[in-house]
Protein backbone atom coordinates (compact mmCIF):
# COMPACT_ATOMS: atom_id res chain seq x y z
CA UNK A 1 0.00 0.00 0.00
CA UNK A 2 2.81 2.40 0.88
CA UNK A 3 4.54 1.74 -2.44
CA UNK A 4 1.30 2.68 -4.22
CA UNK A 5 0.92 5.88 -2.20
CA UNK A 6 -2.12 4.39 -0.46
CA UNK A 7 -2.02 5.11 3.29
CA UNK A 8 -2.57 1.84 5.13
CA UNK A 9 -5.22 3.36 7.38
CA UNK A 10 -7.30 4.28 4.32
CA UNK A 11 -7.53 0.64 3.28
CA UNK A 12 -9.76 -0.02 6.29
CA UNK A 13 -12.23 2.75 5.50
CA UNK A 14 -15.71 1.55 4.60
CA UNK A 15 -15.41 2.94 1.09
CA UNK A 16 -12.20 0.99 0.39
CA UNK A 17 -13.48 -2.17 2.05
CA UNK A 18 -16.51 -1.99 -0.24
CA UNK A 19 -14.17 -1.93 -3.26
CA UNK A 20 -11.97 -4.77 -2.00
CA UNK A 21 -15.03 -6.89 -1.22
CA UNK A 22 -16.43 -6.44 -4.73
CA UNK A 23 -19.43 -4.45 -3.52
CA UNK A 24 -18.43 -1.14 -5.07
CA UNK A 25 -16.58 -0.24 -8.25
CA UNK A 26 -13.91 2.44 -8.28
CA UNK A 27 -14.83 5.50 -10.30
CA UNK A 28 -14.49 4.94 -14.08
CA UNK A 29 -13.66 1.26 -13.56
CA UNK A 30 -14.69 -1.17 -16.29
CA UNK A 31 -14.00 -4.59 -14.77
CA UNK A 32 -13.19 -7.51 -17.01
CA UNK A 33 -12.28 -11.17 -16.78
CA UNK A 34 -9.48 -12.44 -19.02
CA UNK A 35 -9.81 -15.36 -21.39
CA UNK A 36 -7.02 -17.90 -21.80
CA UNK A 37 -6.43 -21.54 -22.57
CA UNK A 38 -3.57 -23.73 -21.46
CA UNK A 39 -1.90 -27.06 -20.97
CA UNK A 40 -2.97 -28.51 -17.63
CA UNK A 41 -0.72 -31.38 -16.55
CA UNK A 42 0.41 -31.63 -20.16
CA UNK A 43 -3.06 -31.77 -21.72
CA UNK A 44 -4.44 -28.84 -23.70
CA UNK A 45 -7.66 -27.34 -22.36
CA UNK A 46 -9.24 -24.83 -24.78
CA UNK A 47 -11.79 -23.51 -22.26
CA UNK A 48 -10.15 -21.67 -19.38
CA UNK A 49 -10.12 -18.06 -18.21
CA UNK A 50 -10.58 -16.03 -15.03
CA UNK A 51 -13.30 -18.06 -13.39
CA UNK A 52 -13.26 -16.17 -10.11
CA UNK A 53 -11.13 -13.09 -10.79
CA UNK A 54 -11.80 -9.69 -12.34
CA UNK A 55 -9.45 -6.88 -13.30
CA UNK A 56 -10.50 -3.56 -11.79
CA UNK A 57 -7.93 -1.31 -13.43
CA UNK A 58 -4.35 -0.09 -13.09
CA UNK A 59 -2.34 1.74 -10.44
CA UNK A 60 0.97 3.58 -10.66
CA UNK A 61 3.46 3.48 -7.80
CA UNK A 62 5.92 6.19 -6.79
CA UNK A 63 8.40 4.84 -9.37
CA UNK A 64 5.80 5.26 -12.11
CA UNK A 65 5.57 1.47 -12.43
CA UNK A 66 2.20 0.18 -13.60
CA UNK A 67 0.28 -2.61 -11.85
CA UNK A 68 -2.93 -4.41 -12.69
CA UNK A 69 -5.40 -4.58 -9.79
CA UNK A 70 -7.40 -7.79 -9.58
CA UNK A 71 -10.08 -9.12 -7.23
CA UNK A 72 -10.08 -12.88 -6.75
CA UNK A 73 -13.12 -14.56 -5.25
CA UNK A 74 -15.58 -11.80 -6.11
CA UNK A 75 -18.11 -13.94 -7.98
CA UNK A 76 -18.99 -15.59 -11.25
CA UNK A 77 -17.51 -14.53 -14.59
CA UNK A 78 -18.12 -15.75 -18.16
CA UNK A 79 -15.34 -18.29 -17.52
CA UNK A 80 -16.57 -19.77 -14.23
CA UNK A 81 -17.56 -23.02 -16.01
CA UNK A 82 -20.25 -23.91 -13.47
CA UNK A 83 -18.27 -22.70 -10.45
CA UNK A 84 -19.48 -20.09 -8.00
CA UNK A 85 -16.62 -17.65 -8.60
CA UNK A 86 -16.01 -17.40 -4.87
CA UNK A 87 -12.93 -18.09 -2.77
CA UNK A 88 -12.63 -19.65 0.66
CA UNK A 89 -10.78 -17.81 3.38
CA UNK A 90 -8.02 -20.42 3.74
CA UNK A 91 -6.64 -20.13 0.19
CA UNK A 92 -6.92 -16.33 0.35
CA UNK A 93 -4.85 -16.17 3.54
CA UNK A 94 -2.37 -18.69 2.11
CA UNK A 95 -1.81 -16.61 -1.03
CA UNK A 96 -1.47 -13.41 1.00
CA UNK A 97 1.17 -14.96 3.28
CA UNK A 98 3.18 -16.63 0.55
CA UNK A 99 3.24 -13.90 -2.06
CA UNK A 100 4.26 -11.28 0.49
CA UNK A 101 7.02 -13.57 1.75
CA UNK A 102 8.26 -14.12 -1.81
CA UNK A 103 8.43 -10.36 -2.30
CA UNK A 104 10.36 -9.94 0.94
CA UNK A 105 12.75 -12.68 -0.20
CA UNK A 106 13.42 -10.83 -3.47
CA UNK A 107 11.57 -13.26 -5.74
CA UNK A 108 9.33 -11.77 -8.48
CA UNK A 109 5.71 -12.29 -7.54
CA UNK A 110 2.21 -10.94 -7.62
CA UNK A 111 1.45 -8.89 -4.51
CA UNK A 112 -1.39 -8.86 -2.01
CA UNK A 113 -2.95 -5.47 -1.32
CA UNK A 114 -5.87 -6.58 0.83
CA UNK A 115 -7.82 -9.59 2.04
CA UNK A 116 -11.46 -9.18 3.05
CA UNK A 117 -13.83 -11.60 4.73
CA UNK A 118 -17.14 -11.60 2.87
CA UNK A 119 -19.25 -12.74 5.81
CA UNK A 120 -20.73 -15.43 3.57
CA UNK A 121 -19.99 -19.13 3.37
CA UNK A 122 -18.84 -20.95 0.25
CA UNK A 123 -19.61 -24.59 -0.42
CA UNK A 124 -16.63 -26.83 -1.05
CA UNK A 125 -16.40 -30.29 0.55
CA UNK A 126 -18.23 -28.51 3.37
CA UNK A 127 -19.17 -24.93 4.20
CA UNK A 128 -16.20 -22.58 4.57
CA UNK A 129 -16.02 -18.85 5.31
CA UNK A 130 -15.61 -16.80 2.14
CA UNK A 131 -13.03 -14.13 1.39
CA UNK A 132 -11.68 -11.98 -1.43
CA UNK A 133 -8.06 -11.08 -2.11
CA UNK A 134 -7.04 -7.91 -3.92
CA UNK A 135 -3.80 -8.66 -5.72
CA UNK A 136 -1.42 -6.75 -7.94
CA UNK A 137 0.73 -7.78 -10.87
CA UNK A 138 2.91 -6.16 -13.48
CA UNK A 139 0.70 -8.10 -15.90
CA UNK A 140 -1.81 -10.93 -15.72
CA UNK A 141 -1.01 -12.00 -19.28
CA UNK A 142 0.01 -15.65 -19.28
CA UNK A 143 1.41 -18.14 -21.75
CA UNK A 144 -2.18 -19.38 -21.91
CA UNK A 145 -3.35 -15.93 -23.03
CA UNK A 146 -1.18 -16.22 -26.15
CA UNK A 147 -2.34 -19.81 -26.61
CA UNK A 148 -5.98 -18.67 -26.57
CA UNK A 149 -5.57 -16.65 -29.77
CA UNK A 150 -3.04 -18.97 -31.40
CA UNK A 151 -5.42 -21.92 -30.98
CA UNK A 152 -7.97 -19.95 -33.02
CA UNK A 153 -5.33 -19.19 -35.67
CA UNK A 154 -6.00 -15.52 -34.88
CA UNK A 155 -2.45 -14.33 -35.29
CA UNK A 156 -3.46 -10.71 -35.72
CA UNK A 157 -4.71 -10.89 -32.13
CA UNK A 158 -1.46 -12.61 -31.11
CA UNK A 159 0.44 -9.72 -32.69
CA UNK A 160 -1.70 -7.13 -30.89
CA UNK A 161 -1.20 -8.96 -27.60
CA UNK A 162 2.56 -9.17 -28.18
CA UNK A 163 2.69 -5.46 -29.00
CA UNK A 164 0.82 -4.72 -25.77
CA UNK A 165 3.19 -6.86 -23.70
CA UNK A 166 6.24 -5.24 -25.32
CA UNK A 167 4.93 -1.74 -24.61
CA UNK A 168 3.88 -2.64 -21.08
CA UNK A 169 6.57 -5.02 -19.81
CA UNK A 170 9.46 -5.22 -22.29
CA UNK A 171 9.88 -1.78 -23.91
CA UNK A 172 13.52 -2.52 -24.74
CA UNK A 173 12.33 -5.21 -27.18
CA UNK A 174 10.74 -2.51 -29.34
CA UNK A 175 14.23 -1.25 -30.20
CA UNK A 176 15.27 -4.62 -31.65
CA UNK A 177 15.40 -5.45 -35.35
CA UNK A 178 12.96 -8.26 -34.56
CA UNK A 179 10.86 -7.13 -31.56
CA UNK A 180 9.00 -10.44 -31.27
CA UNK A 181 12.23 -12.42 -31.15
CA UNK A 182 13.50 -10.01 -28.49
CA UNK A 183 10.25 -10.50 -26.56
CA UNK A 184 10.58 -14.28 -26.70
CA UNK A 185 14.19 -14.17 -25.55
CA UNK A 186 13.38 -11.78 -22.69
CA UNK A 187 10.45 -13.86 -21.43
CA UNK A 188 12.57 -17.02 -21.54
CA UNK A 189 15.34 -15.32 -19.59
CA UNK A 190 12.95 -14.09 -16.89
CA UNK A 191 11.25 -17.46 -16.57
CA UNK A 192 14.55 -19.31 -16.26
CA UNK A 193 15.74 -16.89 -13.60
CA UNK A 194 12.46 -17.09 -11.69
CA UNK A 195 12.47 -20.87 -11.47
CA UNK A 196 16.13 -20.85 -10.41
CA UNK A 197 15.10 -18.63 -7.50
CA UNK A 198 12.30 -21.05 -6.60
CA UNK A 199 14.79 -23.89 -6.47
CA UNK A 200 17.21 -21.91 -4.34
CA UNK A 201 14.62 -21.34 -1.63
CA UNK A 202 12.90 -24.75 -1.66
CA UNK A 203 9.65 -23.51 -3.20
CA UNK A 204 7.31 -25.90 -4.99
CA UNK A 205 4.63 -24.19 -7.07
CA UNK A 206 2.56 -27.31 -7.52
CA UNK A 207 0.54 -26.40 -10.61
CA UNK A 208 2.89 -25.16 -13.35
CA UNK A 209 0.31 -25.29 -16.12
CA UNK A 210 0.85 -22.88 -19.01
CA UNK A 211 -2.10 -20.80 -17.82
CA UNK A 212 -0.12 -20.23 -14.61
CA UNK A 213 3.08 -19.16 -16.40
CA UNK A 214 3.37 -15.38 -16.19
CA UNK A 215 4.67 -13.53 -19.23
CA UNK A 216 5.98 -10.86 -16.84
CA UNK A 217 8.12 -13.48 -15.08
CA UNK A 218 6.29 -13.36 -11.76
CA UNK A 219 5.22 -16.13 -9.41
CA UNK A 220 1.47 -16.28 -9.92
CA UNK A 221 -1.53 -18.36 -8.77
CA UNK A 222 -0.23 -19.86 -5.56
CA UNK A 223 -2.92 -22.55 -5.18
CA UNK A 224 -1.27 -25.68 -3.72
CA UNK A 225 2.24 -24.21 -3.49
CA UNK A 226 4.41 -25.06 -0.48
CA UNK A 227 7.96 -25.01 0.86
CA UNK A 228 10.08 -28.05 1.56
CA UNK A 229 11.03 -28.90 5.11
CA UNK A 230 13.24 -31.99 4.72
CA UNK A 231 15.12 -31.88 1.43
CA UNK A 232 14.02 -34.44 -1.14
CA UNK A 233 14.22 -33.63 -4.84
CA UNK A 234 11.03 -35.57 -5.58
CA UNK A 235 8.93 -33.65 -3.07
CA UNK A 236 5.32 -33.06 -4.16
CA UNK A 237 2.63 -31.40 -2.05
CA UNK A 238 -0.26 -30.86 -4.45
CA UNK A 239 -2.95 -33.47 -3.86
CA UNK A 240 -3.89 -33.51 -7.55
CA UNK A 241 -0.30 -34.02 -8.81
CA UNK A 242 -0.44 -37.78 -8.44
CA UNK A 243 2.30 -38.48 -11.00
CA UNK A 244 4.70 -35.86 -9.63
CA UNK A 245 4.78 -33.88 -12.87
CA UNK A 246 5.39 -30.67 -10.93
CA UNK A 247 7.68 -32.11 -8.25
CA UNK A 248 10.55 -29.96 -7.01
CA UNK A 249 13.15 -31.52 -9.33
CA UNK A 250 10.86 -31.20 -12.36
CA UNK A 251 10.24 -27.47 -12.11
CA UNK A 252 13.20 -26.40 -14.32
CA UNK A 253 12.33 -28.70 -17.26
CA UNK A 254 8.63 -27.84 -16.93
CA UNK A 255 9.57 -24.17 -17.18
CA UNK A 256 11.44 -25.05 -20.39
CA UNK A 257 8.40 -26.95 -21.70
CA UNK A 258 6.12 -24.00 -20.96
CA UNK A 259 8.44 -21.66 -22.83
CA UNK A 260 8.30 -24.01 -25.82
CA UNK A 261 4.52 -23.61 -25.83
CA UNK A 262 4.92 -19.82 -25.69
CA UNK A 263 7.42 -19.87 -28.56
CA UNK A 264 4.99 -21.85 -30.72
CA UNK A 265 2.43 -19.05 -30.50
CA UNK A 266 4.94 -16.49 -31.81
CA UNK A 267 6.27 -18.41 -34.83
CA UNK A 268 4.08 -16.55 -37.38
CA UNK A 269 5.30 -13.25 -35.91
CA UNK A 270 8.98 -14.15 -35.93
CA UNK A 271 9.21 -14.39 -39.71
CA UNK A 272 6.87 -14.47 -42.69
CA UNK A 273 8.37 -17.82 -43.64
CA UNK A 274 7.13 -20.50 -41.26
CA UNK A 275 10.32 -22.58 -41.30
CA UNK A 276 12.46 -19.53 -40.61
CA UNK A 277 10.12 -18.49 -37.79
CA UNK A 278 10.33 -21.97 -36.27
CA UNK A 279 14.13 -21.88 -36.48
CA UNK A 280 14.23 -18.51 -34.69
CA UNK A 281 11.90 -19.86 -32.00
CA UNK A 282 14.04 -22.99 -31.57
CA UNK A 283 17.19 -20.91 -31.29
CA UNK A 284 15.63 -18.89 -28.47
CA UNK A 285 14.30 -21.98 -26.71
CA UNK A 286 17.74 -23.58 -26.83
CA UNK A 287 19.08 -20.83 -24.56
CA UNK A 288 16.84 -21.84 -21.65
CA UNK A 289 18.97 -24.65 -20.14
CA UNK A 290 22.10 -22.52 -19.89
CA UNK A 291 20.16 -19.48 -18.67
CA UNK A 292 18.58 -21.57 -15.94
CA UNK A 293 21.77 -23.40 -15.00
CA UNK A 294 23.84 -20.22 -14.76
CA UNK A 295 21.20 -18.48 -12.67
CA UNK A 296 20.81 -21.49 -10.38
CA UNK A 297 24.55 -22.00 -9.99
CA UNK A 298 25.25 -18.36 -9.20
CA UNK A 299 22.44 -18.30 -6.66
CA UNK A 300 23.64 -21.49 -5.00
CA UNK A 301 27.18 -20.13 -4.88
CA UNK A 302 25.81 -17.14 -2.99
CA UNK A 303 24.08 -19.46 -0.53
CA UNK A 304 27.45 -21.07 0.20
CA UNK A 305 29.29 -17.75 0.44
CA UNK A 306 31.17 -18.27 -2.82
CA UNK A 307 31.78 -15.13 -4.84
CA UNK A 308 34.56 -16.51 -7.01
CA UNK A 309 33.75 -19.10 -9.66
CA UNK A 310 35.31 -22.50 -9.11
CA UNK A 311 35.31 -25.31 -11.66
CA UNK A 312 34.06 -27.85 -9.11
CA UNK A 313 31.39 -25.66 -7.51
CA UNK A 314 28.48 -27.54 -9.06
CA UNK A 315 29.83 -30.83 -7.74
CA UNK A 316 30.27 -29.30 -4.29
CA UNK A 317 26.67 -28.02 -4.29
CA UNK A 318 25.15 -31.27 -5.55
CA UNK A 319 27.13 -33.29 -3.01
CA UNK A 320 25.64 -31.18 -0.23
CA UNK A 321 22.14 -31.71 -1.60
CA UNK A 322 22.72 -35.47 -1.70
CA UNK A 323 23.92 -35.46 1.91
CA UNK A 324 20.89 -33.38 2.93
CA UNK A 325 18.58 -35.87 1.24
CA UNK A 326 20.30 -38.89 2.78
CA UNK A 327 20.04 -37.36 6.27
CA UNK A 328 16.53 -35.89 5.87
CA UNK A 329 17.98 -32.48 6.69
CA UNK A 330 15.82 -29.38 6.72
CA UNK A 331 16.45 -27.36 3.54
CA UNK A 332 16.16 -23.89 5.07
CA UNK A 333 18.07 -24.53 8.31
CA UNK A 334 20.88 -26.38 6.53
CA UNK A 335 21.80 -23.37 4.43
CA UNK A 336 21.24 -20.91 7.27
CA UNK A 337 23.24 -23.20 9.54
CA UNK A 338 26.32 -22.84 7.35
CA UNK A 339 26.65 -19.30 8.72
CA UNK A 340 24.86 -19.84 12.06
CA UNK A 341 26.24 -23.15 13.30
CA UNK A 342 23.74 -23.52 16.15
CA UNK A 343 20.95 -23.86 13.57
CA UNK A 344 22.57 -26.70 11.62
CA UNK A 345 20.30 -29.78 11.72
CA UNK A 346 21.45 -32.34 14.28
CA UNK A 347 21.50 -35.09 11.68
CA UNK A 348 24.23 -33.24 9.77
CA UNK A 349 26.30 -32.51 12.86
CA UNK A 350 26.64 -36.27 13.36
CA UNK A 351 27.09 -37.18 9.69
CA UNK A 352 30.56 -38.29 8.58
CA UNK A 353 29.63 -37.44 4.99
CA UNK A 354 28.72 -33.91 6.00
CA UNK A 355 31.93 -33.49 7.97
CA UNK A 356 33.90 -34.52 4.90
CA UNK A 357 31.87 -32.14 2.76
CA UNK A 358 32.40 -29.33 5.26
CA UNK A 359 36.16 -29.83 5.01
CA UNK A 360 35.96 -29.57 1.22
CA UNK A 361 33.84 -26.43 1.52
CA UNK A 362 36.29 -24.84 3.94
CA UNK A 363 39.10 -25.62 1.51
CA UNK A 364 37.10 -24.06 -1.32
CA UNK A 365 36.55 -20.91 0.77
CA UNK A 366 40.30 -20.33 0.87
CA UNK A 367 40.24 -18.82 -2.63
CA UNK A 368 37.64 -16.23 -1.55
CA UNK A 369 38.89 -12.73 -0.88
CA UNK A 370 36.37 -11.51 1.70
CA UNK A 371 36.67 -11.99 5.44
CA UNK A 372 34.70 -14.65 7.29
CA UNK A 373 32.55 -11.96 8.90
CA UNK A 374 31.68 -10.39 5.55
CA UNK A 375 30.99 -13.80 4.05
CA UNK A 376 28.64 -14.79 6.87
CA UNK A 377 26.80 -11.48 6.55
CA UNK A 378 26.38 -12.05 2.81
CA UNK A 379 25.13 -15.61 3.39
CA UNK A 380 22.57 -14.46 5.95
CA UNK A 381 21.25 -12.02 3.36
CA UNK A 382 20.33 -14.83 0.94
CA UNK A 383 19.52 -17.75 3.27
CA UNK A 384 16.26 -17.01 5.09
CA UNK A 385 15.82 -17.80 8.74
CA UNK A 386 12.05 -17.87 8.38
CA UNK A 387 9.88 -19.27 5.61
CA UNK A 388 6.09 -19.81 5.46
CA UNK A 389 6.36 -23.36 6.71
CA UNK A 390 3.32 -25.38 5.75
CA UNK A 391 2.31 -26.26 9.30
CA UNK A 392 2.52 -22.61 10.36
CA UNK A 393 0.37 -21.48 7.45
CA UNK A 394 -2.14 -24.21 8.20
CA UNK A 395 -2.24 -23.19 11.88
CA UNK A 396 -3.06 -19.54 11.13
CA UNK A 397 -5.74 -20.62 8.66
CA UNK A 398 -7.32 -22.87 11.28
CA UNK A 399 -7.25 -20.04 13.80
CA UNK A 400 -8.96 -17.67 11.36
CA UNK A 401 -11.52 -20.12 9.99
CA UNK A 402 -12.40 -21.97 13.17
CA UNK A 403 -12.06 -19.25 15.81
CA UNK A 404 -12.30 -15.98 13.86
CA UNK A 405 -8.89 -15.12 15.35
CA UNK A 406 -6.62 -13.29 12.89
CA UNK A 407 -3.83 -12.37 15.29
CA UNK A 408 -1.70 -15.44 14.38
CA UNK A 409 -2.10 -14.47 10.71
CA UNK A 410 -0.94 -10.89 11.33
CA UNK A 411 1.95 -12.12 13.51
CA UNK A 412 3.18 -14.48 10.79
CA UNK A 413 2.85 -11.88 8.03
CA UNK A 414 4.81 -9.35 10.12
CA UNK A 415 7.55 -11.88 10.88
CA UNK A 416 7.94 -12.84 7.23
CA UNK A 417 8.39 -9.23 6.14
CA UNK A 418 12.03 -9.63 7.26
CA UNK A 419 12.78 -13.30 6.61
CA UNK A 420 16.55 -12.98 6.80
CA UNK A 421 16.72 -11.24 10.19
CA UNK A 422 16.42 -12.75 13.66
CA UNK A 423 13.24 -11.30 15.08
CA UNK A 424 12.86 -9.68 18.48
CA UNK A 425 11.21 -11.41 21.39
CA UNK A 426 7.89 -9.66 20.83
CA UNK A 427 6.45 -13.01 19.77
CA UNK A 428 5.79 -15.33 22.69
CA UNK A 429 7.83 -18.19 21.23
CA UNK A 430 9.79 -16.87 18.23
CA UNK A 431 11.77 -20.08 17.74
CA UNK A 432 8.62 -21.92 16.70
CA UNK A 433 8.61 -19.89 13.51
CA UNK A 434 12.02 -21.14 12.39
CA UNK A 435 11.83 -24.77 13.44
CA UNK A 436 10.61 -27.55 11.13
CA UNK A 437 7.38 -29.31 12.06
CA UNK A 438 7.14 -32.09 14.58
CA UNK A 439 5.99 -35.39 13.03
CA UNK A 440 2.37 -34.77 14.01
CA UNK A 441 2.50 -31.28 12.44
CA UNK A 442 3.72 -32.32 8.99
CA UNK A 443 1.44 -31.23 6.13
CA UNK A 444 1.47 -34.01 3.54
CA UNK A 445 -0.81 -32.49 0.90
CA UNK A 446 -1.93 -29.06 -0.23
CA UNK A 447 -4.95 -28.14 -2.32
CA UNK A 448 -5.83 -25.51 -4.91
CA UNK A 449 -8.74 -24.47 -2.72
CA UNK A 450 -9.73 -21.32 -4.54
Automatic annotation (TrEMBL):
Residues 421-430 have a biased composition (Polar residues). InterPro entries: SelO. Its cofactor is Mg(2+). One of its GO terms (molecular function) is AMPylase activity. Residues 420-450 are annotated as: Disordered. The keyword Ribonucleoprotein does not apply. Pfam families: SelO. Keywords: ATP-binding, Magnesium, Metal-binding, Nucleotide-binding, Nucleotidyltransferase, Transferase. Belongs to the SELO family. This is Selenoprotein O and cysteine-containing homologs. It comes from uncultured Thiotrichaceae bacterium. The lineage of its organism: Bacteria, Pseudomonadati, Pseudomonadota, Gammaproteobacteria, Thiotrichales.
Amino acid sequence: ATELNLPAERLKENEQVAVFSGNRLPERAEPLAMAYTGHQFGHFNPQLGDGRAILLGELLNHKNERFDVQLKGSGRTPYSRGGDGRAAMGPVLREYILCEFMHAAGIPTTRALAAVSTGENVMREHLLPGAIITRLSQSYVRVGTFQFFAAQQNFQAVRELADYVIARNYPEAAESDNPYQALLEAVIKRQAGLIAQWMQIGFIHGVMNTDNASIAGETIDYGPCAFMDEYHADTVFSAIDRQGRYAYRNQPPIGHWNMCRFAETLIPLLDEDGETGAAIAQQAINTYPDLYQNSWLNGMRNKLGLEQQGSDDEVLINNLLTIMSDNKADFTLTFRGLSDQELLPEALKHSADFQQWNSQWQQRLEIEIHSETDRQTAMRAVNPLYIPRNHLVEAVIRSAEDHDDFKPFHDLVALLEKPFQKQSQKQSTPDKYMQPPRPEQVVQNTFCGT
